[in-house]
Amino acid sequence: MPSTQEPQRHPLELKIPPPIIAVLLGGIMWGVSRLTSLTEVPAIPRYAATGTLAAIGIALAVSGVLTFRFAKTTILPDKPERASALVSTGVYRVSRNPMYLGLLLLLCAWAVWRSAPWGLLGPLAFFLYINRFQIVPEERVLSAKFGTDYRQYTARVRRWV
After folding, report:
1. Does residue 108 lie within any of the structural domains?
2. pLDDT in tens, 93-102
């Protein structure tokens, strides 16, 4: 008789909200930048790159939140089963995860601002962690909840960009 049990979940799945992960990694990046050598980057390009990355990141994250609010569905990252609608409009036509992409770009902006090459491991760590412990479990839930509509959406829109 086949098992109807849900597969064993990793204890970190859907446990730590992505903004908390971003803040923790930002703190680690700050510490790394204090302990390692910095790269000389001219001020104007550094400010421009930091501002551009931060502005795009904030715009994506806020747009994602507002689109979810407009659709009257949950933005709680630890409770994807509470989703009441499959959101595929607005910024969700370009990215399935604009809020996470926004946080990633903010971490990239922070790395550029700090001018510490080792700090670039922060955005990489965020990307890897969020993919494994946030996005993959969310996708399992959304696929089960929204079925064919969700699978068609994932075929049309990339996970990140």
Report:
1. yes
2. 999 999 999 9
